[in-house]
Amino acid sequence: MDRIASLKQAAFKNGESDGFLIFNQANLIYFTGFSGATALLIPKEGTPTLYVYNVNYEQAKAEGKTFVVALVRRSGDLLECIAEQVKALKIKNLALDAASIESWLALAKKVRGTTRLKVQGSIVSALRKVKDAQEIELMRKAAELTSEGMRVAYETLAPGMKEYEVAAEIEYTMRKKGSYGTAFETIVASGLYSAFPHGGCSDREICKGDLVVVDIGATYKHYHSDMTRTLVVGKPTDKQKKLYDIVKKAQDKSLEAVKLNVKARAVDAAARKIIAEAGYGESFVHNLGHGVGLEVHEPPVLGPYSKEVLAEGNVFTVEPGIYLAGYGGIRIEDTVLLCKDGVQKLTNGPYLLSKE
Ligand SMILES: [Mn+2]
To answer: Which residues pair with 321 in a beta bridge?
Structure first.
């Protein structure tokens, strides 16, 4: 079933809504495959309307063949165009995936007396959590490119290099092999900066003995991926080895816990238990993982407070870490796919603490 048909089934089946308005950029790409649209109106019956500005109009007509393409001449006209169409189609209950407060109030005013608005973003989010075959293929490709980048990170890292030089080699390779861009700003965080989960990438020179957290992601046709490895430039100390083994074991145990219909928080707990038992519970300062897809962070969340249940077709990260301020940090992350018969790693690469 195509994605719009799935949305219609989920949103309109009980008669609560008879139209769905999509504003969120990733959701627009999900339903249209096109990144230049501003809004999409999906009525219960008939052809959806794609709203685009002049700058993207010709491309939308070329790429959005299954939609009515409506030209919006000025930004102030968008809600007016939508309101007219909503009234023409006699939509009584319009669901929205998201809207700014200003847009919501303005649209509500324009359709007052004819149409009620309600937020139903979770319907789209539930669809997007379960990747279809086409999405999985694109995500495999994105993950493959990311793994290539990580291979280059291992090859390149050496004392005396600046963090940004390593990032440049990684990004060059991913791009050269077909990546459309990076899923987020590349992290090459060395020394004390490795203790900051979002340590970034600076002009710092990498020193012998440093822990270096490399967190990267390629994109492929709008799909993201996410992978982290940590290594020591030079010979690791006993403490570095010990911390690495704890994090690796936490990842292994949580991956063992990933199964169909398992609570996401149970998977988080499997990793957290290993780290806590080793005495570093307070130093695992983030969730175990997050969904990946058209966005690098999307549902399902794998954390202690998550209410999600994992299902076939979910793609998410498994990324335990230990961060010790004033010392350094270690994180290991892979993007994985939950299949009928178990979990599959989409990102692939060795788990080596050092090249020595
Ligand atoms: Mn991540």
So the answer is: 331
Q: Has residue 247 been placed in a domain?
A: yes
Same domain, 114 and 174: no
- Give the pLDDT score at 151: 98
- For residue 320, pLDDT beyond 80: yes
Residue 217 and residue 311 in one domain: yes
Does residue 167 lie within any of the structural domains?
yes
Question: What share of the chain in percent tops pLDDT 90?
Answer: 92
Cα–ligand 1 centroid distance for 127 (angstroms):
21
- Residue 227 CA to ligand 1 center (angstroms) comes to 7
Measured distance CA(191)–CA(209) in Å, rounded: 8
H/E element, 31 = helix 25-32
How far is the centre of ligand 1, averaged over its atoms, from the C-alpha of 216 (Å)?
A: 9
Amino acid (one-letter) located at 131: K
Band the pLDDT of 1: cuts 50, 70, 90.
low
User: pTM of the predicted model, to two decimals?
Assistant: 0.95
Q: How far does residue 333's CA lie from ligand 1's centre (Å)? A: 7
For 92, the domain range is: 3-128
Tell me 304's DSSP state: T
Query: What is the CA(244)–ligand 1 centre distance, in A?
Result: 18
Same domain, residue pair 154 and 281 = yes
Look up the CATH number of the domain holding residue 76: 3.40.350.10
